From TrEMBL, chains A, B:
Protein name from the UniProt record: LacI family transcriptional regulator
Coiled-coil intervals: none
Taxonomic path: Bacteria, Pseudomonadati, Pseudomonadota, Alphaproteobacteria, Hyphomicrobiales
PANTHER family: HTH-TYPE TRANSCRIPTIONAL REPRESSOR PURR-RELATED, LACI-RELATED TRANSCRIPTIONAL REPRESSOR
Keyword set includes Nucleotidyltransferase: no
SUPFAM superfamilies given in the database record: lambda repressor-like DNA-binding domains, Periplasmic binding protein-like I
Gene3D superfamilies: 3.40.50.2300, lambda repressor-like DNA-binding domains (1.10.260.40)
Amino acid sequence: MNVTGGKRGRITIHDVAAAAGVSISTASKALNETGRMSAETRERVKRIAGEVGFRPNALARGLLSKRSFTIGLLTNDTYGRFTLPVMAGISEALLDHGVSVFLCAIEDDPALGQIHVDAMLEKQVDGIIATGKRLDRQLPIDLSDLPVPVVYAFTEGTSTSVTFRSDDAQGARLAVEWLVKMGRRRIAHVTGPESFFSVRERADAYRDVIGGEGLVMFGHWAELWGHEAVADIWNKESERPDAIFCGNDQIARGVVDALRERGLRVPDDVSVVGFDNWEIVAGQTRPPLTSVDMELKELGRQAGLTVLALAEGRPVDPGVRKLPCRLVVRQSCGAQNPRR
Amino acid sequence: MNVTGGKRGRITIHDVAAAAGVSISTASKALNETGRMSAETRERVKRIAGEVGFRPNALARGLLSKRSFTIGLLTNDTYGRFTLPVMAGISEALLDHGVSVFLCAIEDDPALGQIHVDAMLEKQVDGIIATGKRLDRQLPIDLSDLPVPVVYAFTEGTSTSVTFRSDDAQGARLAVEWLVKMGRRRIAHVTGPESFFSVRERADAYRDVIGGEGLVMFGHWAELWGHEAVADIWNKESERPDAIFCGNDQIARGVVDALRERGLRVPDDVSVVGFDNWEIVAGQTRPPLTSVDMELKELGRQAGLTVLALAEGRPVDPGVRKLPCRLVVRQSCGAQNPRR
DNA sequence: CTGAAAGCGCTTACAG
DNA sequence: CTGAAAGCGCTTACAG
């Protein structure tokens, strides 16, 4: 015995029409609520279609309508950390419109990207969303001259396109202002590599809020760097911070662990804020991290609705749209509720 | 100014045929390497198709061939921890065959699942792969009577279907045998909830290898539980383990941190092994975790090739296929290389 | 060696 | 109120 696949004799609109004793055109119009016919006929056709389990063939439909109700999501974020929430937002927004999403992970391989783009175009996607893992890098493939609309989300787009990104400056401000509100006065900033645009943007916002140079330490996106930074700071003679704003949650976790290992209490002695609100890290840190959430799902939702608009020919203004971040308060700052 | 989308005047085979001065049939045959014609004609058509940037419409093709070169991946693993590697394997295996993948995250919502399945069937997917986050649970939707082949990966399937899963018993054996080989004699097992099939299977394999009851502690899948378990063990009078085999990497991370906080050295005093080889956890633990990898990418690859076979009508034996796990050695056990 | 015709499953003017 | 016909873009017997 073995399993068999294949699509043996699917039911078509022919079968429905025959069973209902009407022509194919009438059946089509009945099912699509178009044309005019007796309510009785319409109902009968619809009932029979339901009974025989009729499912319209989207390929045939798409051939006529020039719409496949399909879009492609291109990403070079293998890890899925940014792509997954974006994808969830896109999917949620487009499901109501009957649109399905092809996910294409292209790493940083231009050839792989080209293959995926070609495959999607042949499959007549209504549009493409390009997403990545940083705001100042393009995907390794040129999407600027495609026959379908392209929207960028969390990756650098072209000047004539629509690009959605998080407002990192506003997110950083949110974090630092919160620390200030918590009564912290000596706030340090431990972050990722200065080569990242978002790192510079967040650092600038940090300096802006504290109104001075502050203490900015550039490093890399890992827990280890959090440990090293804390060691550096506490091994110096200089005045110690009572709060540390970190460039991402992994660094923040390293910082929190390092502080605890030095016998310092978080948040009592030092408050810590992370960035990304990556549940797996922020939630498992002891104490759980207060962190800036980039609202990637909302970003995905808007990107999805935007490709859809473009695919339907509705006009959309090009440019970069910055979406506000949100501060998610947990225990690492010493307060439970941002509104309190 | 605004961005415009839409598919204005795509090039069809008509255009190619006209430009090459041949009929549509000849153009089609030239491009598909079928039929017979002068080499000169064939070359000319192909060259012109390339020049005008002709891309065959997969919708039209699919209508004829009953193959959409599209499959659906259904998952209830929102977090993507298991789905992402599986997806990567599927995608990699099917790309060569021109197959694209619809990703559908259905949470545990049957209604959402039904909507996605209906959408995929209308779009004439050639098959569906169902994937989840545990081996002993079905997706919240019945896939047993679909007009297309369904393959299960890392989720419970039906008796007549093909199901791919990791061999958790073998994986656990690998881990415990490795600890034994490292000279460890008092190996404990700290794991997840006993209600999970894979937890029981791993625990049984653990007992098997150590040849006795051992010390099995069921809990939950979090770092905190690792801390609690270590506290429990070390607060008792009984003999302390010199190795702990953990049910997943998060527990293992908690265990490692808890041991270090007690002044115990890992791996010198206690060796620790995790399960899942989740890079973000295993790699950031100090020291990095030796962990069991379930080879989910390979699992995805095989699942992908299997739906493809079924879609093409090739016979496949039903049943559960267990794929071997692999031990990834890092520093938490005291050795660098399993072959040494 | 090349092309006219039928048809995949549907929708949409158009005619009756 | 209902249906015959044309057509979306392609492929595939079949005829010449």
